[in-house]
Input
Amino acid sequence: EVHLVESGGVVVQPGDSLRLSCAASGFTFEDSDMHWVRQPPGKGLEWVSLINWDGESAYYADSVKGRFTVSRDNTKSSLFLQMNSLRHEDSALYYCAKDGPGAYGLEHWGQGTLVTVSS
Amino acid sequence: QSALTQPASVSGSPGQSISISCTGSSSDIGGYNYVSWYQQHPGKAPKLLIYDVTNRPSGVSTRFSGSKSGNTASLTISEIQADDEADYYCSSYSNSNTYVFGTGTRVSVL
Output
């Protein structure tokens, strides 16, 4: 069974940095592209980032480009999101999700980790 | 990367069919057959209903179906039930290996 567990969400101040983690199990992590998706409290979903299976390619939403960096450690089946220069509008529940099935569908999601940016 | 446009709310009586539209542009929905749909109940992670415009993952009810015409994708829920009351989101591949979600639709079962 696919299992994704996010961690690292806390309350931070504007301008701070934070690193989120996503521990994966139940599938061949090193063969899977992975996404980060976020959801501000009471609002809709926003795609954040994609990293391909070997970590060689990464893509970002314009809203986080230049501030967030996605990475992965296939030896530890772990995904990361380094978040710098955090803003109030980055406050959200952050989900990691496994790419697939098909060309685009996110069938497996974690339970999310909450990031709050507040002064 | 503008959010795809969905109606804020759609409602129907039990047993009826409803459809949710998702409008984008030629840079996303219109340009690729990479549209997915998600159902989200309060406090829960999203659940994949449809991928690649029309395909259902194993275990998803056949009452959910997807389609696309031009820059607009649609999700149809037939024989709507009380448990279908939730938020629904579309999502599409966009240019340059980015993705975009819709604004979300709250479905109410009357």
Remarks:
- The interface with chain B takes residues 35, 37, 44-47, 50, 57, 59-63, 95, 101-107, 109-112 of chain A (CB under 8 Å).
- The CA atoms of residues 38 and 46 of chain A lie 5 Å apart.
- The mean pLDDT of chain A is 97.
- The first strand of chain A starts at residue 3 and ends at 7.
